[in-house]
Design brief:
single chain, Rossmann fold, Aconitase, domain 3, 38% helix, binds FE3-S4 cluster
């Protein structure tokens, strides 16, 4: 991989954090046969929950000594940093989690703590990024037309310190070409069906750049949920949708193999939910409004009901959030039902997300039921 004189100097830096960051990017570039490094507009760092990285990760982070040179954002952590006690998080966990967050802020990261960084200050078409959170990667590539590979937390951090990433994979135009057509032969009726479609087709399209043809137009939030499931099941980092996504007509699809999907049905656990959890990925403003519409004429929820969204959105829509909370629903930020150990206090969680369906049983050891937002709300008010 070609390195400029300035980039070579980073490899000889007296600062071990800068030197190590550059070594990580060079090693990655060599593995993937990148020709050079390219500048990135922003980085997004995942894997920051104390639950995931433990004391070893915390100590390593605290040993770092440099500043991010580009906009750096961080993924959800293990708790709401203000209402952690309400989530049942203990003080020891809280303190360690805050040390992780404060270290990243000392390095120059924004305390964004969201997996939907694309809703505030979104990147532009063609921007190069080094993002790690899988739903954010697939959203940025597919729905915005920005360019990012699926980074690890460490490679995104290294890119933030150096301001660059190796030029390979989805940074290169020809690698963004669709490789498989997916014809969806029925009308998608709600966001949960879109999410389940991503869940069931994830493995079938693994390693491909799928080009979807739908019978109906899917709203942005449905595509967000579908992308998150595709990424969770099949590592998908880019998809195109006919007449909907920004690069859908930039490539020829003639001669591509086709597969058909006829129905979206999955069997989830037959359990009685003791927790309803929405916001995987974190809710958009539109989804928050949709939720308000379905709860506003009802009384108090009969079951524990958590909603996750970014703190920025909570601050922007304070009054709607307060109205939703009057129904006994808890609106949390900085975390989610999957990364927070708080979910482990429950047995059966109802969600509208294929990504949560994929990870909750493994990471939080709970049973999972899936339904649309409306069905989740119905369940929450059932006696
Ligand atoms: Fe986001 Fe947590 Fe789901 S980080 S995509 S809400 S697993």
């Amino acid at each position: 991989m070609y390195l400029s004189r300035e980039e070579e100097k980073f490899l000889e830096s007296d600062n071990p954090t800068i030197k190590k960051s550059m070594e990580i990017l060079v090693a990655l570039g060599e593995i993937f046969e990148a020709d050079r490094l390219i500048e990135v507009k922003s980085v997004q760092i995942s894997g920051i929950s104390y639950q995931n990285i433990g004391d070893a990760g915390l100590e390593w982070l605290e040993s770092l000594d440099a500043k991010f040179v580009v906009k750096a954002m961080i993924n959800p952590a293990g708790m709401d940093i203000i209402r952690w006690k309400e989530m049942g998080i203990d003080e020891g966990f809280y303190r360690k989690q805050m040390r992780i967050i404060n270290t990243l802020v000392r390095l120059g990261a924004e305390k964004s703590l969201t997996c939907t960084p694309y809703y505030f200050d979104p990147p532009s078409f063609g921007d190069h990024l080094a993002w790690a959170e899988s739903n954010a990667v697939v959203y940025a590539n597919s729905l915005i037309g920005a360019r990012t590979n699926r980074e690890s937390g460490i490679s995104a951090l290294a890119s933030g310190i150096i301001g660059k990433t190796p030029n390979y994979g989805l940074h290169i135009q020809e690698n963004r070409e669709p490789t498989l057509i997916v014809d969806v032969e029925f009308e998608i009726k709600n966001e949960a069906e879109a999410s389940i479609l991503g869940y069931i087709s994830g493995e079938k399209v693994a390693g491909e750049v799928p080009y979807f043809r739908f019978k109906n137009t899917l709203p942005e939030s449905w595509l967000k949920l579908m992308g998150a499931s595709l990424a969770a099941k099949g590592n998908t980092a880019l998809f195109h949708v006919k007449e909907q996504t920004p690069e859908w007509n930039k490539f020829s699809i003639s001669g591509l193999e086709k597969i058909e999907v006829d129905i979206v049905e999955i069997k989830t656990d037959e359990c009685e939910p003791d927790l309803i959890a929405l916001g995987c990925p974190h809710l958009s403003e539109q989804e928050l409004e949709n939720l308000y519409e379905v709860v506003k004429d009802r009384g108090k929820v009969k079951r524990e009901f958590w909603v996750f969204l970014s703190r920025k959105l909570i601050e922007k829509r304070k009054s709607i959030v307060e109205k939703i909370e009057e129904h006994g629903i808890k609106v949390f930020s900085d975390t989610c039902m999957v990364v927070s150990p708080a979910t482990e206090s429950y047995e059966c969680v109802m969600v509208n997300s294929g990504k949560a369906l994929q990870y909750l049983p493994k990471l939080r050891r709970v049973q999972v039921k899936i339904g649309s937002m409306k069905e989740c709300v119905e369940e929450a008010f059932k006696v």
